[in-house]
Amino acid sequence: MLGRLQWFSLSLGELVSSLSDGSICIKANAQSCGECIQVSEICGWCTDETFLSEGESKSARCDDVSYLKKKNCNNIENPRGRTDVIQNKSVTIRNKDGNIKLKPEEITQIQPQKLKVTLRSGEPQTLDLKFKRAEDYPIDLYYLMDLSFSMKDDLENVKNLGTHLMREMREITSDFRIGFGSFVEKTVMPYISTTPARLINPCSNNENCTSPFSYKNVLKLTSNGEKFNDLVSKQQISGNLDSPEGGFDAIMQVAVCEEQIGWRNVTRLLVFSTDAGFHFAGDGKLGGIVLPNDGKCHLENDVYSMSHYYDYPSIAHLVQKLSDHNIQTIFAVTEEFQPVYQELKNLIPKSAVGTLSSNSSNVIKLIIDAYNSLSSEVILENSKLPEGVSISYKAFCKNGVQGTEDNGRKCTNISIGDEVSFKISIESQKCPSGGKPEVITVKPLGFNEEVSIELNFICDCECAKKGEPNSPKCHGGNGIFECGACKCNEGRIGRECECSKDEVRSDDLDANCRKPNSTDICSNNGECLCGTCECKKRENPAEVYSGKYCECDNFNCDRSGNLLCGGHGRCECRKCICDANYTGNACECSLDESTCLAKNGQLCNGRGKCECGICKCEDPKFQGPTCEVCPTCPGVCTEHKDCVQCRAFGDGEKKEMCQKECSYFNLIKVKERKDLPQPTDQSFPLTHCKEKDANDCWFYYTYAITKNSTKEVFVVEKLDCPSGPDIIPIVAGVVAGIVLIGLALLLIWKLLMIIHDRREFAKFEKEKMNAKWDTGENPIYKSAVTTVVNPKYEGK
């Protein structure tokens, strides 16, 4: 019992850090090793036969691995997952100008190719994938064209497409094939006119058109560009009634009819050329067609024969088939329908949209640009995952660019010869029903290569394979003894399968679960199973009930400082077992006296006793950790002043009683103040003092208690008395001060007078300037000039 509980003396930090995870395993109440390892990757199962203590349930074997080790478990079942590479062929380094021409199946662009991953619940397994675009990789391109009447001028430009496109594509790959197909609409009302004449020639205005059709495979994939031109030049325009076309029917047949189209396991491109919208699932009801598209090939003599029977495919159905057959789609549409097909592109991975001129004259440039855009991007996708399995991606692209979550699946701007890598994490949350291996695939969209991953699940422990059926250890063969515990047969329960389920609540068995003189079953801390107490589990895995009647626990002991057993012991059956040097009900009392030592080396400064590592001062006026503080006591210097004064200088208040009261210290005289001991010179506390006597003379001394408790006083033998005042300097200073003050006053008076005179003069000058004098004529003045006017003068 004692050995079982030693592991509980954990530090508080260890306890808190493990509460959240450790309790997961305990809460699961796992009854076998297989159940335990499914709970979490941190859970382990102890297989030691003697691991459980009295009152512990079988599920106590399942716990955090670190806890099991602290509980002294020697054999822990803790299987781990792993990743094994089965096929790891290096990516192909191929040169277009090289002499060796490889077959498509001999070219490798993704590595590794096959893996085996063993998964344990909650433990992710990581694997690395590498992708490298191969140079001169073969290409199959199928040109699917709308041959409704509005595409008449486009057909003329496409007739020479074969040789021109072949020449351009030779710059990209030496292995290029091209095919051609056309579509119009379902051959039922209201999509086309079903009158006999219109079924022969759906066009008006005397135009010569071919009969309407849904989809026609004109030319399967070929490397002969001249043959493409020859067959396409023989094609005729047809017609229909409504604007949207039946292009989705045609795309579905091109995708699923691999043999008729001639697809190889190479880069597959589908160019979809139209100047109109499209019908999709549900639109067939207008023509009375309600059966969903079955996604199968229905080509008879290269013509789609079931357009009148099956509805148009849905966008999701189309996406699935294009992905399954590794087909990359290029929508070559007129500017008017660009927004519609841009939205469609967002729903179809590895697709592109190009703007087609009104007469398709730019179709070759459009195809080249779209191919370069598609091939510069790699997007990983995986097949359907088993229930409970999740997968995540992290991309490591060019120029150190990294992507996570949705961007972790793809890398862009990849040139030929560039190498990128992906880190894939696979995790299982539970063991699938049956636990059989599952195979998933991961592949780059638009490429025929894929990585095959076989998933194996750890659903049981290795030790379970060595189980002993009908073991005598399980109450006479009532169970399988595996992994250190009994796995009971149907209808049997108990730690050793000793009880039948029908006997679980028997009163006779319950009596075995009561303490003497008690009515409580298992002390109300457990459940009576088969006459044996199985104690309750606590939320905190470090807290347990134990004992035959679950009467003990390890968490209800006395506390000190809010810590169980003061943090200095372990709790066993509600009683503290203290560590060395500790005692007390809560291990709160330390037997170590080092905390009571004062600076002078004495215990409690000789003023108290050390109890539980704390000084208990005998004199109540002293306090502090070592009884060194006395708030009501005079200072050391004041306390010893009179005795030092009487012994050193024969003076002071204790002069008459000096011999009797002041002989408790050794007096040592020094000549000067600098000769007094300094604190750095001593290994014990030292106090410097400066005191004044009745004559206002200062004397200096030090007081110290040595390690052997001897009191020592060092005193400067000469008093420091102040000298009398010097009269002459004082008188001279006073006279000089009076004279200086007089001179200063005269200077101030003189300055004020000068300022006043200047103001008065300025005022006089101003009044003088502003004065005005009156002018007049002399009354007795007569002019000497007389003026005479000639009366005959007429001014001529």
Would you give an account of this structure?
- With 796 residues, the chain is an alpha+beta fold.
- The protein has 7 domains: 20-79, ligand-binding face of the semaphorins, domain 2 (2-Layer Sandwich), CATH 3.30.1680; 82-135 and 380-458, Sandwich (Immunoglobulin-like), CATH 2.60.40.1510; 147-376, von Willebrand factor, type A domain (Rossmann fold), CATH 3.40.50; 467-499, Laminin (Ribbon); 504-555, Laminin; 559-590, Ribbon (Laminin), CATH 2.10.25; 636-716, Irregular (Hormone receptor fold), CATH 4.10.1240.
- It is 22% helix and 25% strand.
- The protein contains 17 helices and 42 strands.
- The strands form 14 sheets. The protein has a 6-stranded mixed β-sheet with strand order 4-6-22-21-16-19, with no helix packed on it. Strands 10-9-8-11-14-15 form a 6-stranded mixed β-sheet, sandwiched between helices.
- Helix 6 (161-169) runs antiparallel to helix 8 and helix 9 (247-256) packs parallel to helix 11 (315-324).
- The protein is flat.
CATH superfamily of the largest domain, by name, is: von Willebrand factor, type A domain
Q: How is the CATH topology of the largest domain named? A: Rossmann fold
Average pLDDT score: 83
Q: Nearest-angstrom radius of gyration? A: 55 Å
Beta strand %: 15-25%
Q: Helical percent range?
A: 10-25%
Gross CATH architecture of the largest domain: 3-Layer(aba) Sandwich
Q: Characterize the overall form.
A: flat
Number of strands: 42
Query: If helices are DSSP runs of H or I spanning 4 or more residues, what is the number of helices?
Result: 17
Q: Please give the alpha-carbon distance between the first and last residues.
A: 163 Å
What is the count of distinct domains? 7
**Low-confidence spans:** 1-22
CATH class of the largest domain: Alpha Beta
With strands numbered from the N-terminus, the spatial order across the biggest sheet is 4-6-22-21-16-19
